[in-house]
Design goal:
The protein has helices spanning 2-18, 24-43, 56-61, 70-77, 81-95, 108-120, 125-132, 136-152, 154-157, 163-177, 237-242, 245-251, 286-312, 324-343, 348-351, 371-381, and strands at residues 182-192, 211-218, 224-232, 261-263, 274-275. It is of the alpha/beta class and 384 residues long. Strand 2 (211-218) and strand 3 (224-232) form a beta hairpin. InterPro entries: HARBI1-like, HARBI1_dom.
């Protein structure tokens, strides 16, 4: 094909020389023909390689180990080099590949870099592939593999607090809001999707964009202790809760110490283990107003957790994946990474940003309050 292109060029140069003494219009026509034919040959010629970034890890990542560049790593990958090494140690065996295919030879550290790059930024898989000199399909598989490897250690990283830990959390929270027995805070947020999966209108929430629900419970330190995701954006928060294992186990008395509970907002039903504020129709007593203020002062912890989750792992601001299972796997992986950052005190405050998608449906509770929950709240509101 290259020889043919050379023949075209030689032929056109001969014609241009032949008409060199003729009028300029004729010469211009032949030059245009030459450019058109050369472009056609190039278009039909299969390239041996595609321009790409090479040796990114050697030329950039390894340089970020130097003291003067160590902050650059965290700036781009949203975790410190130290925490990266800790996470790599946890995932190394799961990411170790022994095959001979193109993606099978990618080392565990490079896989984790690819996964973090995708989770930490809003770059497309095509852009990540360009940086790491990989194909887009390989990046897609690596991202899912990294999320899957994180999911395998999820039960060790996201755990419901033990009885002793519940007592500790309750003591810490009571010092702030003067309400006893609080062991966590529950809320939901919407993970924006680039498009509704399967063109299903159920994924559109009341703000008009497609999303998937994410429900979490956090402790007083913003550690996620329970996560549940996967319901379409139109689903009421209370319905998400009632379909979760958290609800089933709490109703069965398996999760909470006696007289201990979590705080939620008015979208959730009152239970003896889930306390919500009084609805304000303009007739609240001073004690009820004070109770609402106290509850709100500490429940903000879960909103801050969402702000950190989406502020650090920016892919959660909008997920362009097509498969619901893959999206849930990615969300769960980000929640696990969130807890790693909390445990290792990874500049948490620096990444907290306001989450505008916590209450896009502006829901009020649609389920009947439990009698025991009503009684429990009355006991709490009358405390000094």
């Amino acid at each position: 094909m290259v020889d043919n292109m050379a023949d075209f060029s030689t032929f056109h140069r001969m014609l241009i020389d032949f008409f060199a003494d003729d009028d300029e219009d004729r010469m211009f026509q032949f030059r245009e023909i030459q450019r058109s034919d050369e472009a056609m040959v190039l278009k039909n010629t299969k390239r041996e390689s595609v321009p790409n970034v090479t040796n990114y890890i050697d030329n950039v990542i390894n340089v970020m180990r130097l003291p003067q560049h160590v902050d650059d790593f965290q700036y781009h990958y949203r975790v410190s080099r130290h925490l990266f090494d800790i996470i790599l140690g946890e995932l190394y065996d799961s990411l170790l590949r022994k095959g001979k295919g193109t993606h099978e030879t990618v080392t565990p550290d490079k896989q984790l870099l690819v996964g973090l790059c995708y989770l930490a930024n809003n770059q497309s898989m095509r852009e990540v592939a360009h940086i790491f000199d990989l194909s887009k399909s390989t990046v897609h598989k690596i991202v899912l593999d990294v999320c899957g490897a994180l999911g395998q250690i999820g039960d060790r990283v996201i755990r419901w607090p033990s009885m002793e830990r519940q007592r500790e959390i309750a003591r810490n929270v009571e010092q702030v809001c003067h309400i006893p027995g609080v062991v966590g805070f529950i809320d939901g947020t919407h993970i924006r999707l680039s498009f509704a999966l399967g063109h299903d209108n159920d994924f559109y929430n009341r703000k008009g964009f497609p999303s998937i629900q994410l429900q979490i419970v956090v402790d007083d330190q913003m550690m996620i202790t329970n996560v549940y995701t996967g319901w379409p954006g139109c689903t009421h928060d209370a319905r998400v809760l009632r379909n979760s294992s958290l609800f089933q186990r709490a109703e069965a008395g398996e999760l909470f110490l006696q007289n201990h509970h979590i705080f939620g907002d008015s979208a959730y039903p009152l239970r003896n283990w889930l306390i919500t504020p009084f609805k304000n129709f303009g007739h609240l007593t001073p004690q009820q107003k004070r109770f609402n203020q106290r509850l709100s002062s500490v429940r903000v912890t879960v909103e801050r957790a969402f702000g950190h989750l989406k502020g650090r792992f920016r892919r959660l601001r909008e997920v362009p994946l097509h498969n619901a299972e893959e999206i849930c796997k990615l969300i769960y992986a980000a929640c696990i990474l969130h807890n790693f950052c909390i445990v290792h005190e990874e500049d948490v405050e620096e990444y907290i940003q306001a989450d505008e998608n916590i209450h896009p449906n502006h829901d009020q509770n649609i389920f009947q309050n439990g009698h025991d929950g009503v009684v429990r709240r009355l006991q709490l509101v009358n405390l000094p």
